[in-house]
Amino acid sequence: MARPPCELARARRRSLGRARASLAAPTCTPRGTDTMARKKVTIVGAGMTGGAMAQRLIERDICDVVLQDDPQFARTMHFGKALDESQAAAWSGFSASISATDGWDETAGSDVVVVTAGAPRKPGMSREELLNSNAAIVRAKVADAAKASPDAALVIFSNPMDAMCHVALDASGFPRERVIGQGGALDSARYRHFVSDACGVSPQDVHGYVIGGHTDTTMVPVVSQTRVGGVPLTSLLSAEKIDEVVARTMRGGAEITELMGVGSAFYAPSAGTIA
Predict the structure, then answer these.
(1) In 20, 65, 118, 193, which residue has its Cα 20 to 30 A from 45's Cα atom?
(2) Alpha-carbon gap, residue 223 to 238, rounded angstroms
(3) CATH domain 184-274 topology
(4) Which are the contacts of 36, defined by CB distance < 8 A and separation ≥ 6?
(5) Each residue's pLDDT tens digit in the chain (275 positions)?
């Protein structure tokens, strides 16, 4: 016996309603429900270096990022940078979050705190000339960061970096293995670049490191252990050319500062810090 038209219409509406409900139900995973807990990194100082570092971290999708800065200096710039980077997620494909704050509550429980706060070098200025102005800034920032995240590792970027590591060690009360300076990574990257340029190869083919202090006079490129495609550097370049590479490495930061005129390097430093 055929069903009445009205009953058929009701059946169609019920079927259509179920289909719409199934289409409306989200199948994605909301933020914050990852199988593994996402790490949290606070970047103190949202200038050129801090902003570049935040971008590199967030677009690798390996941690959530908090940009912390003082409104007296940054005004609302750190909030703008966090919002700008958040809006890149649709195209960059990351699900990690980035936020900004004037205070420290939002930074609590950070796994890593990177300190970039402080004045940058100006053309003709040595890193050591920043000691007095930056020491007070770093001391205050590190003390607050350590209270909010007592189990974090500190990565110090502010110049003069070696001296600021000692300031951070004292201000935080952390064991020394949790206070790290980024200078060696940056200096080594610059050294590898200049070696690769002199040899006409990719930096990925160069294996060499710089030890010592992050200053124009105390860093030491380890030439004897440098290899290019497995071949000793001393077999590929003359002693004079190697001396040129070493000298340019030691003045790498000053060269960029002079060329830029305003501010200092931030692309390579941010990459070296998270490498």
Answers:
(1) 193
(2) 12
(3) L-2-Hydroxyisocaproate Dehydrogenase; Chain A, domain 2 (3.90.110)
(4) none
(5) 555 556 655 666 666 666 555 555 556 656 555 546 789 999 999 999 999 999 999 999 999 999 999 887 778 999 999 999 999 999 999 999 999 999 999 999 999 999 999 876 667 666 666 777 789 999 999 999 999 999 999 999 988 888 999 999 999 999 999 999 988 899 999 999 999 999 999 999 999 999 998 888 889 999 999 999 999 999 999 999 999 999 999 999 889 989 988 888 899 999 987 76
Q: Which residue bears the tokens 């007095």?
A: 132
- Assess whether the previous peptide bond of 160 is cis (omega < 30° from 0): yes
Domains 39-181 and 184-274 equal at CATH topology level = no
Q: Report d(CA 35, CA 78) in Å as an integer.
A: 30
Q: Is residue 214 annotated as a catalytic residue, yes or no?
A: yes
Q: Give residue limits of the domains in the chain.
A: 39-181, 184-274
Encoding tokens for residue 101? 């704050």
CATH topology for 39-181 is Rossmann fold (3.40.50)
